[in-house]
Amino acid sequence: MNTEILGIILMFTATLVAAIPIGKYIAKVYAGQKTFLDPVFNPLEKVFFKISRIDPAKGMNWKEHMVALLTINVVWFLLGMLILMCQQWLPMNPDHNPNMSPDLAFNTTISFVVNCNLQHYSGESGVSYLGQIWLMFLQFVSAGTGMAAAAAVFVAFREKTTTQLGNFYDFLIKSCTRILLPISVILAIFFVFQGMPMTFEGKQTLTSLQGDTMTVSTGPVAAFVPIKHVGTNGGGFFGANGAHPFENPTYLTNMLEMWGQFVLPMAMVFAFGYFIRRKKLAVMIYTVMTIGFLLLVIPNIYMEMKGNPAIAAMGIDNSLGAMEGKEARVGAAASGFWSIVTTVISTGSINSMHDSSMPLSGMNELLAMMVNAFYGGDGVGILNFLIFIILAVFISGLMVGRTPEFLGKKIEAREMKIAMIIALLHPFLILVGTGLATAFPAQGASTLNNPGFHGFSEILYEYTSSSANNGSGFEGLGDNNLWWNISTGFVLILGRFLPIIGPVAIAGLLAGKKYIPESNGTLKTDTGTFALVIFAVIVIVAALSFFPSLALGPIAEYFSMR
Amino acid sequence: MKPNSQSLFQKELMQTALKDSFLKLSPKKMFRNPVMFTVWIGTLVMFFVCLWTLAGAKAQGSFGYNLFVFVVLLLTLLFANFAEAIAEARGKAQADSLRKTREETPAKLQNGQTISSAQLKKEDVFICEAGDIIPSDGEIIEGLATIDESAITGESAPVIREAGGDKSSVTGGTKVLSDKILVKVTTEPGESFLDKMIALVEGASRQKTPNEIALTILLAGFTLVFIIVTVTLKPFADYANAPITIAAFISLFVCLIPTTIGGLLSAIGIAGMDRALRANVITKSGKAVETAGDIDVLLLDKTGTITIGNRKATHFYAAEGVGQEQLIKAATLSSMSDDTPEGKSIIELASLNPLSFAIKEPRFVKFSAETRSSGIDFGETRIRKGATDAIKNMVEKAGNPFPEEIAAQVRNISNNGGTPLVVSENERVLGVIELQDIIKPGIQERFERLRKMGIKTVMVTGDNPLTAKFIAEKAGVDDFIAEAKPEDKMNYIKKEQAAGRLVAMMGDGTNDAPALAQADVGVAMNSGTQAAKEAGNMVDLDNDPTKLIEVVEIGKQLLMTRGTLTTFSIANDVAKYFAIIPALFITAIPALQGLNIMHLHSPESAILSAVIFNAIIIPMLIPLALRGVAYKPIGASALLRRNLFIYGLGGIIVPFIGIKAIDMLVSLFM
Fold first, then answer.
1. What's the mean per-residue pLDDT of chain B?
2. Exposed (0-12), middle (13-18) or buried (19+): which is A248, by Cβ within 10 Å?
């Protein structure tokens, strides 16, 4: 077999093999059981909780959870704005990078707070080391925020009837210190050995073989890159992200970075199963996600390896695949694979230019973000999936002649209202954003590098990436201007917090309801049939909402290329 | 009243429904249904576009084409209205025929005055004698009568109704066959259950049920998605230099929103109540029917539901040293004045005429709760029959032993589900009579069916636990309440409800009223007391205790019909997209011809075929909406697979075929 493909299969298997025990471990962490890191962190946490007067053992209902979540996010946002807008006067700026403009600082801080990392700047020249460290901190806590919200949902479905969904701060701290940190540290040590820089000394000057002198940006990259992936953030240290040789020096780092972003979203699914003691349900969810993922990734690998017919027509050898915008050390297969991994999961780090993907590969990358629930981001992926479960349960519950119920709780008008609003939000943000950008070409469309269908795809991609909190760019558009910074900034906020609040609210409402024991007439949600319904709901919702826009973008481009 | 084979579309019903479909176009009525209301707005816009093209606008296509789109949209609305109207008309016709039986009957008041039944008010008292038609629903306050209720129930055997007790209700329209009764009117004119049900069907007081609301939210959500999709398509298309006509926009929108289920939704709800009425069950709200589909536990009285009528005597077992004839004779004598079905069955089994024994000055001892025995005294002889421990006490008090073999026989009878009655003469045990319950044929299969539906059946009986257990096992019920007092039922219901289950029960007596009110679905028998009927949320005109099973299926059908048609409606969109999207852009972007996988004739014909398909699918599905999707107790997952296959996969494939066929037809004229 082709070694490129073999490498991918090995990587995927390695992730799955690791995700199951890690999932079990995560369930243990959220259940408040002892972990190997307790001796290190418990005393520290005690001090912090005492100073901040938080009782981590105090239960919160879903509203208190959300208030705590939003409050702390606002604090992070304000601090971030302050640091980025004042970085030239603050320490740890050996390269003397200037202050960020207010709109760019707004966009940057928001995008890191919401775990999106849409970067309208280049790290080399745009951010000081202090700024980078703050952004790194946000990469931890934003992932932790999503996971803490998911943990609240886990609790809601484990208890028969309760209003208390655990303590938000407790879940947040545990997610960061017991889960994200240890995995990141292990990866960082490995990355240093693979040649990733780890220094605070600023730009290095070196002389090339030809005798030219050049300055090379470095920094604490090896500390930054692991959490960028493990936290499904995707914000690169450098502008070129994972395509930059310091951020992704070898084939091995490439594979490990993919493993890093893949492992927690998968593990969260298993953690859900372990935590609520329904492993079959977790397997069902995992299966639906994996089938969705494979349906997107296999065509991508195929198309990218097959190469570009337009280039072949010019008489250029295409046997390595469509190599425009790709790194030779990574190759077409691993690039195609990464392009879907990073878009199904809300990472958004890139190791090739998605702008140069084949038209239908680009469509799959878009679809991955439009669905945003095949694995998805840390914690938030499973929250997004919950919305699809609710819709599927409702429709299939009716089809078997019973008021729909999920895990023993009746789905009624209130839950449907919330689920529908969240399901609507994603197409709303993407389509309205794209609609505005095309309706006012002076603002949006004029910044495009490409005309026609591809240009349209670039706009569509930017808003899809923002709404899905993905952060990858089709690039090709001059995105650091007032229009893009502000409009995507707002899409980011709405696309982040509403899809967290919605599922937590649904879980909270359901948790307060009476538990109905299962009977023969109850629809089982851990079966293949139900998996099929969820899959159909996901496909239909995504297809129905986005088919016209995809037809005008990648599909039109595909047909005109033939 | 029984013939249920009424065809779906009767001529006179069709006429009313057709008229109503136009009346329902008023925006006030349309507003109740968000999905169809958006179609209504679209139709209005198309009307103005037609005028505009007539006035000479060029960019919007020909007048004929726009007019055609307008007409098809209007038809879509009319079809949806027609579905609702025909469901209403059918329900109303059914209720009317029930109501007709009780119109304009003369009522004789106590003071000898005769007035029309329409003038009767609550608390009025009227007299009925043999041959009279009872003018109004009421409660017998004096007397006893045999009554022919076939007008309501279709059952020809007359029933006995008497003052006091649980069989005191009479129904208007039924006929008194013998004797004379005084009846008090219990409801104001126009407020009987039937009147309330007619109001429900007519829509005046029809409330959306919780499930209907949740589904409406889902459908409104889908409608909103497509509003966003269609509106944003305008700048997208402009950007791609592919201008789209208003007709195309509106057609795309109307085709995508779930008009099929949106148009049929209220018809499905009304048809559910109508089906209940056809089963001779009056429901007090649409919600009750829906809840019936969710029932987890069913409480059934043993007598009449699980067993036929009452216990029958099957054997006489004489004590040692007592002749079989002696026992039979004593048993017959003790039952002489016993009017209970058990007493009669003893005489039947003995095949002796009690009057053939010449006995002087018999004194009959009635059954009482304290002695728990009955019998006869004559001369020096005292014959008693009764519950084992009652007779045992009496015998042992008199210093006589209770024979060992009789005690053994008693246990044996109990273990086999029978009821022992011990017979004594002058405080000496003569023997024991075995009474047995006869389980209704076919009842086991019905319980098996319920079990497959996931419903737990509970038998309620006054029998002792041993007997109850035996019958429960034999009939195949899951649980039983033995020696049940009215509060036991209540406690059982509360216990199950506390565990999150929904409970249904059937009852008739005033005793049952609290439990009927507590149960999630309480079906009162029409023969029951007014209190019971008020407490329950359904009234069964047939007084058939097994009716609950049908009610549950009607409830399930209702939800399933909604679910499957929603799935079908949404699955349809896939094909419609493949018809309309290429049609919208092909002129400006020829490359998108690749999406025209159905090879439709032209952009115009593609759009027309899609809207025509969208319109005609509604009337084609009306019969299904009215009849309901068949429920099969094959387990939830299997049922889901089945419906997913038929309505999901079918919903994807059917419109591809339908649109292509219509396109071939339409292209003949273009």
1. 84
2. buried
Q: Give the helix ranges, DSSP H, for A114-167.
A: 123-126, 129-158
Q: How far apart are alpha carbons B356 and B371 in whole angstroms?
A: 28
Distances in whole angstroms, Cα of residue B579 to Cα of each of B389, B606, B658, B660: 82, 6, 11, 9
- The fraction of chain B above a pLDDT of 90, given in percent, is 22
**Bridge partner residues of B382 (DSSP):** B377
Above 0.95 for ipTM, yes or no?
no
Element holding B162 (H helix, E strand): strand B159-162
Inspect the interface and report whether the beta carbons of B236 and A438 lie closer than 8 Å. Answer: yes
pLDDT at position A314 over 80: yes
Catalytic: which of B301, B338, B542, B573?
Answer: B301
CB A553 within 8 A of CB A457: yes
Q: How far apart are CA A189 and CA B533, in angstroms?
A: 77
Task: Please tell me the distance from the alpha carbon of residue B588 to that of residue B607, in angstroms, as a whole number.
Answer: 16
**For residue A457, what are its two tokens?**
């795809």
- Give the model's pLDDT for residue B312: 82
Q: Is B224 on the interface with A (CB under 8 A)?
A: yes
Q: Which residues pair with B524 in a beta bridge?
A: B507, B539
Q: Measuring CA to CA, which residue among A30, A60, A62 is closest to residue A501? A: A62
- Would you say residue A71 has pLDDT above 80? yes
Question: What Rg value do the Cα atoms of chain A yield, rounded?
Answer: 23
CB contact under 8 A, B235 and A436: yes
Q: According to the per-residue pLDDT averaged within each range, which of A419-433, B190-204, B462-476 is highest?
A: A419-433
- pLDDT per position as a tens digit, A174-203: 999 999 999 999 999 999 999 888 888 888
Size of interface A-B (CB pairs under 8 A): 209
Long-range contacts, stretch B227-232, CB < 8 angstroms, 24+ apart:
B227/B38, B227/B253, B228/A424, B228/A427, B228/A428, B228/A431, B228/A432, B228/A545, B229/A427, B229/A431, B229/A544, B229/A545, B229/A548, B229/B256, B230/B256, B231/A435, B232/A431, B232/A432, B232/A434, B232/A435, B232/A549
Predicted TM-score (pTM) of the model is: 0.85
Task: Please state the three-class secondary structure of A481-534 as a single string.
Answer: CHHHHHHHHHHHHHHHHHHHHHHHHHHHHHHCCCCCCCCCCCCCCCCHHHHHHH
CA–CA min distance A312, chain B (Å): 21
Q: Which residues of chain B make contact with A551, given a CB cutoff of 8 A?
A: 581, 585, 592, 595
Q: How far apart are the first and last CA of chain A?
A: 29
Residue A559 has pLDDT above 50, yes or no: yes
A517, B574: Cβ pair inside 8 Å?
Answer: no
DSSP state of B463: S
B238 is catalytic: no
Q: In B500-645, at which residue ranges do the beta strands (DSSP E only) sit?
A: 503-507, 521-525, 538-540
Taking the CA of residue A272 and the nearest CA in chain B, the distance in Å comes to 23
According to DSSP, the β-strands at B297-301 and B503-507 are parallel
Average pLDDT, stretch A195-217? 84
